[in-house]
Amino acid sequence: MKLDTEALDQTVSEIVRKISAAVPEDLKAAKQGLEKNARATVEGAFQRLDLVTREEFDVQVMLLSKSQKRVKELEKRINELEEAIKNK
Asked: Whole-structure pTM over 0.90, yes or no?
């Protein structure tokens, strides 16, 4: 699954805006170059991360929950079978 690029772009833009806002006004000429470099740096960092979409995460949570339930059922069944063997 691909990431929601619109949400990622908004996040990157917000980070770049915050960095840009921290630049003093007398360095305004360098501000545009800084914004470009900051955007490239932040986008590069996000690309190196192993991110998943919320939908993919939710599917994995559901599968984990089902797996945990199944493990508990199997553990209970094993305990019942062990008790049956002991009582023979």
From this structure: no
